[in-house]
Task: structure prediction
Amino acid sequence: MEYEAVIGLETHIQLNTKSKIFCACKADSWYDEPNTNICPVCSGMPGVLPVLNKRAVEKGVLLARAMNADIPPVSFFDRKNYFYPDLPKGYQVTQYDQSLAKGGYLDVPQADGSSRRVTIWKLHLEEDAGKTRNELGRRMIDFNRCGVPLVEMVTGPDLRSADEAANYLTRLRQLLRWLGVSEADMEKGHLRCDANVSLRVKGETILNTKTEIKNVNSIEAVRTAIEKEIIRQTNEYEKGRRIEAWTLEWDEDTQTLKKMRSKETEADYRYFREPDLLPIYMDEAWKAAILADFPELPLSRRARFMTEYGLPEYDADILTGERSLSDYFETAVKAYGGASPAVADVKRVSNWLMNDVLRMLNESGKTAGELALTPAHLAEIIRLVDANSINTNTGKALLEKVNATGKSPAEIVQAEGLAKVSDDSAIRAVVEQVLTESPNEVAAYKGGKVGLMGFFVGQVMKKMQGKADAQKARVIFEELLK
Result:
């Protein structure tokens, strides 16, 4: 019997606000000592009142719009009741039946060129709990994370493989960073994911008992954990056993899943309306102000780069991987090729950006928007190479020089004498010197090893500090080696 996986993901997205969702404590405690970034509100002291962080709402609205969700005019907060050591109040303030957004979807491109529509069942605001860790046989509790603003987003059971789940998370992380609503770093807990996994006979539509996988802190861990759970459930079904509704914990060290507890149901949480917070009234004026500068989204820009600019899918995917890089590229294209650049012009800028500027970014750890090398500088360097004023190697070296000094390429070329030497007599003199110094190579070349031409030209470039016209040097060599 052939089975197919049915997978849904629950993601918790830490919004990158300065303060927590209901108090003035700073939201990012990654580098803080345990229990040093708390106050009576977020640590659940009696008699305190929460105050809603407006920026958390606005960032939630941006994400809801990007996920094609409806944003109702009124939403409420609720209390989700459960007892756990890292939840000091004994309940979590969240949203249940009337949340910030309703519905939505994300169309995710797949490796085979198809697209998978992942629907959104829930998208709501809530506060984070603290965290626990085992240390020297004791359970230690850190409340710093209590009250950090989150968006919880739950997908429909639309994913059919571990690879599709990983692909969805990759695109979601890209979107969160693009919008500027979250750092989306899974290692720091900015983006956390629980996976719900079940199996059914291929072709059937009924949903079977699912298990939930927790404690995964990277996209690759999500992929591996889901793959292992699919294998486990397949083996259970083939042995005629039932699947139990377990919550499973992923152990990164051993790369295994183990049972944590039986899975709770919504009835176990005894939701009721939060009495200490007013409803969120999202009127049209406020929503319009939030969405006034809503950007072109990465997948839309990726598609436009392929249709409008004729870029290959590979280039378009890389150039829209990060927003500042994408903006940098498009500005450089317009600086180089004008308002209506030819496909060849776009591809030329793409090649320089992907081969050389990306290397600089990777080595420096900076984003494209932080470079002193502006898009106009890049366009100028490419034009200097096109005009034969400098050679390609000099152009590549100029990228680093401009980025280090902030000076214009032409200014550096003039000051350092980097212009290409095209004078026939100057190049001929160096060519003759190379031939005199290389009798063995000359003999080998005349004996049929024509590949040595690259060696000869390289020697000229070396002696002339990369400024020689390589094509002219080659022509002179061919003349003298006849």
Q: What stands out?
A: The chain has a mean pLDDT of 92. The longest strand covers residues 115-127. Residues 424-480 form a domain with the Arc Repressor Mutant, subunit A fold (CATH 1.10.10).
